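Students often ask why we bother encoding 3D structure as a string. The short answer is that it lets us treat folding as translation between two languages. Here is a chain of 731 residues written in the first language.
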Amino acid sequence: MNTGLRFLATTSFAALALAANAAAEPKFNRVASFPVNSNLAADEDQKTVTSAEIIAVSEDGMMLVYSDSPAKRVGFVDITDAANPKPAGSLKLEGEPTSVYAVGGNVLVALNTSKSKIETSGQLLTVAFKDKAVIGTCDLGGQPDSVAVAPDGSFAAVAIENERDEELNDGELPQAPAGYVALVDLKDGLADCATLRKVEMTGLATVSGEDPEPEYVDINGNGEVAVTLQENNHIAIIDGKTGKVTSHFSAGSVNLQNVDSKSDGAISFTSEKKDVPREPDTIQWIGNDRLLVANEGDYKGGSRGFTIFNTKGEVLHESGLDFEHRIAQVGHYPEKRSRAKGVEPEGAEVKAFGDTSYLFVMSERSSVIGVYKDTGKEPQFSQLLPSGLSPEGIIAIPSRNLIAVSNEVDLIEDGGVRSHVTLYSLADAKAAYPTIMSGKDDKGMPIGWGALSGLTADPEKLGILYAVSDSVYAGRPAIFTIDATQTPAMITSVLPITRSGAAAQLLDLEGVVADGKGGFWLASEGRSDTMVPHGILHVTDKGEIDKAIGLPEALAMNEKRFGFEGITAIGSGDEMNLWMAVQREWGDDEKGKVKLVSYNPKSKEWGGVHYPLDNPTEGAWMGLSEITLYGDHVYIIERDNQIGAAAVTKKIYKVSVSDLKPGKLGEVLPVVKKELVRDLLPDLKMSGGYVLDKVEGFAIDKDGMGYAVTDNDGVDDSNGETLFWSTGTMQ
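And here it is in the second language, the structure alphabet:
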């Protein structure tokens, strides 16, 4: 390995962002990701589903606490060293915690103890940070959702949602019992149950006013409580001292143009939606006279943005599709949610860091945090931050220049990523994310992209690469042009792949190599149960398929789902051979050996060799993700299918071209020797996030500069994060 490679890769990632830069505008960058399952006790099943939903921080800023509804507990995280958070244990509860809010040396916990959606009940617990013990319990009389504390610590407000049953009558309102807001005085951070009073919310909204469903509460410096009635598409303001509703108004609706409204495997911002109700989730005061709401649209809506209101209900700013389009440009657009809710903004936070007030808006489905500066008028976009899977809660810690985000989804039952708490630091530094993004098309719309599964370099232009996306975007298969000389790397154009002028169907593109004449050879991974054939394709410089090559019988008779995952070309003219990496063992392969398959387009001859895999850890599998030629070697990505802390093998190996002497398919194949070039785990850890599982693209340009990219699965059971970086000059 070239010892200079590590430095080049490091400067391509978070180290760049963490280096001091006096001229740079302060930016937030992720510094750590804490897996919530780390708080499981040693004697607990380590595969227990855990979650981090709403999050709070101790008065000194050193301890986080989060609600974990599935495990019926609250968890604690020691962030004394923010870059190395440590498990600090948990407190088991007799119910499902829905929200937490720190006050003094305590934390208030809203606890759902309901027997059903009809028989609702709940409690407000006071828990001591120091002892991690319940020191007070108040009966709330209904199912709580959100809790907030007045800035002076004098009282708390709890949104009693009494949420609807989404399985009953298709979730239609009304559904008794009605929700309300509970107010309770605090004494030294302890809830005084005797002062608890109920503020009715019925009769306010025009949408099912008899069944209000309070979602989120926040309190300003004047002691005014703002509350969203999400399904009712309404906002109310309560005097926290008297319990009187002083104003209320409809959240209104938006008209959306240039929206992707179809879940069809293609990102296309060409539709419009009219009169879409905002249906806000989180609400946050901006000072004492403005309100920021994140418009999740959980009931009938799907407005996809955020809004700033004054206390009279007048719209001061509407984000429209700006937030969603920015998310699409960084590859986080959840195409499968297009028809309904798009990026689904849900959580929000408003806090000043020094002289700058920041607005943070989180997209639940895209796993992105939008950071904006409050100007008093139109917010100024600053950056997008990647989070864990499905961010739910956020807390700013200005005293330490930190923000912490709780991410609720845990996919351990599917062998996927665990729930995480992610930490970010504000510093005079460059933004580390995104590492790759797209520009806009000729109509001014974002170039939608994701699931980058194959990569190749332009034969002549330094730093110009081409990528394909896999079957997630089968509705619009395409080749993307990437300018890697920019930071972040920029997707500058997209070439649709067509058959007879129409978008080509039944493709799962996993490999691409330039043919040197403006066209490309592509490898498509087949899957018989979805009628997608394994094969090789050639497309012209216009993207039209002019050759489609199926597998020979000797190969096809042993096919399995995990097929060609990369393609490269060795030689030229009649002597040119295509080489494809098969991801995993097929029916005729010895365990631990996979095929590298060759095909000569001129002679139509097939052949192959066996490649020896590393041994996987228990419960994992090992496979190949890419093959690319440079000099006298082919470079191969070998990886396990593990993610996060379970990931062990993400490596680049090389095989000498002279060793690629194909044997006859169906017979005993020669076994090649491999040489380790680079362990990619250190690279993947430098982003401050959990280790991504799918390193699927690798290319080397004509001067030997290597580039790697991860596949984000099209934001399906994925946080949508794509990492793109240089591995330095290859030798």
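Translate back mentally: Residues 459 and 702 are 6 Å apart (CA to CA). Keep this in mind for the problem set.
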